[in-house]
Predict the 3D structure of the following.
Amino acid sequence: MPVELSKSEQPNIMDDNSKILIGLSWDLKSEEEKIDFDLDTSIFLVDKNGKTTNERDLVFYHNLIHPSGAVRHTGDNQTGKGDGFDEIIIIDLDLVPDNINKMICAVTIYDGDKRNQNFGQIKNASISIMDQKTGKEKIHFNLREDFSIETALVVAEICRYNNEWRFNAIGSGYSGGLNVLCMVYDLPVSDFDIK
């Protein structure tokens, strides 16, 4: 049985297996189902100051694998249709470089500002942490807030704490999509084709 989290809870996620899978799921509200909606997951790998050290510290649809091999995005689902997870990121905690203190898990709406789309048009948004070896869900976090104007969400952090990795449920919204998150984590947006 997975741990059902509320914001700011921080359980240890590393036990005998350092390989985890992060699955994000969401649905469009029924009145929005005919709209072309593309949600994207990303991971920012940041140092003790909360900043990326180079452009490869953002794993997303244009950079699917971190140079360390620690974080791998399985690819962009541009429709979000179907059962199961809409996008998946695989993390090997043993391979995370020593200078990385946190991994920030975010979801953004591609061209959300241009298309006048926001997370208020989404329902059933959640994140699951799975044990990659057993396939069992370890942690589940439902995003229950109604983000009526936001186009970017920081869903969770995976934080290094002593010799453990802890999952911290966040659920904070931003306007401005992936560009804004790149500024927050000190990544020049000119390094990528980001919308």
Notes: DSSP finds one helix and eleven strands in the chain. The longest helix spans residues 177-184. The chain has one domain: 3-188. Residues 126 and 142 are 4 Å apart (CA to CA).
